[in-house]
């Protein structure tokens, strides 16, 4: 939204408090639309805990890493389609109908998952939830951005990021609440439909984006909404700025002619402003995923188990810490995104991410190197048929195994720790009977990670990673994507960027557990560390600063002949 002049020496968050006290409708609008971020976050967090209990209920899932990855990643696959369709729907039908449809899809998927009798039904529900999340992930920040005064746009769009992390934190609390309830994971996944239902009801009472309305020649409606958003002394200037911007865009579109979606894409890529905007926006979205954040958010309890904490409830409780840090970091982002700047905050964030991933890789290497031995004598106490077959063959050949080799055995064997967890334990066949025998002796049963004295160090490194990620790479990419595209291409470009985000997310979530098996946990985190370092370099070269700039000024910057992302841009005055 074209806004008033950005006040020197002020932050958007301070302006947010001032403006919402005078115009509370702004906050209501941003919160209602921002529940789309809550849906995104809730789904990310809830499956990480539910997966632990789904594995216990379905033996085929327990034994198949690929099936576990598929249950997690099918929501992401649905989100790719949802984000792409959302870009077209936003431009054709408006922002508000797109959000309403997203809510219905999410609610339907949540109900299907909660009653699923088989793994494939869970997967169908995950796809529907993903379609809704994908549409909401790109539409909510766009709606908030277009209905917000320019000087508080950053802070309001950041509320979307805060609600994403708040949704993740809420999902961990709900997961913990249902750990002792019959049908654990069904309740966890079913409750996910409540935020969608809440947003659907709230959005029914909210207006369409004034920018979209103005483009559709519904000018009176657009002006009426702006009078509810802006203080009386600013509204006339804002309406004039909106009129000039939209009319200029529509005149350019008429000059370009029609051509449908394919024609729109051709025209978009024919503009240097769009190409540079997409380079920045898509890079931010891809980097947000490839730094490995969703290995932490989708698989956080599993990572905690990899660090040596075997109990499902313990893993969930400890994961709550990382989720809480993520939520706190998004609040920090609201205070600093317009003071420090979008670009600088992301670069600082990536520097911390690289450091923490290197530390995590080192910690997991130490965990593997100091894993307790697997003892043939210990395994024999569980009976002749309880021992892991690969371990029996290795022991007969005189080989020495540790817990690490046991868990990597092709038979998906489990490790039953000694009562002193760091002493030699038993490498056992992966059956329900051996698991019960192990736990009956007050021992811990390990299938994901090994007993370790380094577990708390891994949690500290994980916490530091979240603290580095959340204020920068967690929130800012969505803000960048709401600012760098010309209005006439904003819907389709937002769709392209959101699809890039979800595709990267799919790659990470569908491969993480397989990578830990192929490269080991240390090698997997080292790989993410290298990708994050490369992202730092590319972001420095391709992503400009947009702090405090109106949409027209961003477009002017991206179209300038001497454009360099790392150079400060001084906009030329606009004359109406």
Give the structure's gist in a few sentences.
Helices cover 73% and strands 1% of the residues. The protein has 26 helices and three strands.
Portion in beta strands:
under 5%
Report helical residue fraction. Answer: over 70%
Q: So how many helices?
A: 26
Low-confidence stretches: 1-10
Tell me the span between the first and last alpha carbons. 16 Å
Describe the main β-sheet briefly: 3 strands, antiparallel
* Class inferred from helices and paired strands: mainly alpha
What's the shape?
Answer: elongated
N to C succession of SSEs: HHHHHHHHHHHHHHHHHHHHEEHEHHHHH
Order the strands across the largest sheet as they lie in space: 2-1-3
Can you put this structure into words, describing what you see?
73% of the residues lie in helices and 1% in strands. It is built from 26 helices and 3 strands. The longest helix has 34 residues. It has a 3-stranded antiparallel sheet. It has 576 residues and is mainly alpha-helical.
């Amino acid at each position: 939204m074209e806004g008033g002049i950005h006040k020197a020496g002020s932050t958007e968050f301070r302006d947010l408090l001032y403006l919402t006290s005078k115009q509370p409708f702004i906050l209501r609008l941003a919160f209602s639309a921002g529940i789309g971020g809550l849906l995104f976050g809730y789904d990310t967090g809830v499956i990480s805990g539910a997966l632990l209990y789904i594995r216990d209920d379905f033996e085929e899932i327990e034994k198949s890493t690929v099936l576990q990855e598929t249950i997690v990643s099918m929501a992401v696959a649905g989100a790719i389609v949802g984000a792409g369709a959302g870009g077209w729907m936003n431009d054709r039908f408006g922002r508000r109908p797109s959000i309403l449809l997203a809510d219905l899809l999410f609610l339907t998927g949540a109900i299907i998952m909660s009653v699923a009798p088989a793994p494939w039904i869970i997967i169908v529900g995950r796809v529907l939830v993903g379609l809704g999340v994908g549409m909401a992930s790109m539409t909510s920040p766009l709606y908030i951005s277009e209905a917000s005064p320019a000087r508080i746009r950053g802070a309001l769009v950041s509320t979307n990021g805060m609600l994403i992390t708040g949704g993740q934190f809420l999902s961990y609390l709900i997961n913990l609440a249902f750990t002792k309830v019959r049908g654990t994971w069904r309740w966890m996944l079913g409750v996910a439909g409540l935020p969608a239902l809440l947003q659907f009801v709230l959005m029914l009472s909210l207006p369409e984006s004034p920018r979209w309305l103005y483009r559709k020649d519904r000018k009176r409606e657009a002006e009426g909404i702006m009078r509810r958003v802006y203080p009386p002394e600013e509204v006339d200037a804002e309406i004039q700025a909106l009129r000039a911007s939209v009319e200029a865009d529509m005149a350019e579109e008429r000059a370009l002619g029609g051509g449908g979606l394919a024609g729109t894409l051709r025209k978009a890529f024919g503009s240097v402003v769009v190409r540079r905007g997409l380079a920045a926006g898509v890079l931010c979205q891809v980097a947000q995923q490839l730094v490995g954040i969703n290995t932490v958010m989708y698989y956080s309890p599993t990572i905690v188990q990899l660090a040596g904490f075997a109990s499902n409830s313990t893993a969930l409780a400890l994961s709550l810490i990382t989720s809480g840090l993520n939520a706190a970091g998004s609040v920090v982002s609201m205070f600093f995104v317009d003071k420090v700047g979008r670009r600088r905050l992301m670069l600082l964030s990536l520097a911390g991410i690289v450091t923490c991933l290197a530390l995590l890789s080192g910690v997991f290497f130490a965990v593997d190197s100091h894993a307790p031995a697997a003892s043939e004598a210990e395994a024999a106490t569980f009976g002749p048929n309880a021992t892991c077959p690969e371990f029996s063959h290795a022991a007969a050949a005189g080989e020495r195994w540790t817990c690490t080799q046991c868990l990597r055995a092709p038979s998906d064997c489990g490790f039953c720790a000694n009562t002193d967890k760091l002493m030699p334990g038993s490498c056992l066949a992966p059956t329900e009977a051996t698991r019960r025998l192990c736990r009956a002796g007050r021992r811990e049963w390990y299938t994901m990670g090994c007993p370790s004295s380094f577990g708390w160090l891994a949690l500290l490194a994980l916490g530091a990673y979240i603290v580095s990620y959340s204020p920068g790479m967690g929130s800012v990419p969505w803000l960048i994507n709401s600012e760098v595209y010309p209005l006439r291409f904003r819907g389709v470009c937002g769709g392209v960027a959101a699809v890039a985000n979800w595709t990267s997310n799919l790659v990470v979530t569908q491969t993480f557990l397989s990578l830990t098996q192929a490269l080991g946990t240390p090698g997997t985190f080292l790989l993410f560390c290298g990708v994050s370092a490369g992202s730092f370099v590319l972001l420095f070269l391709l992503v400009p600063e947009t702090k405090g700039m109106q949409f027209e000024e961003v477009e002017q910057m991206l179209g300038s002949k001497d454009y360099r992302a790392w150079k400060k841009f001084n906009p030329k005055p606009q004359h109406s």
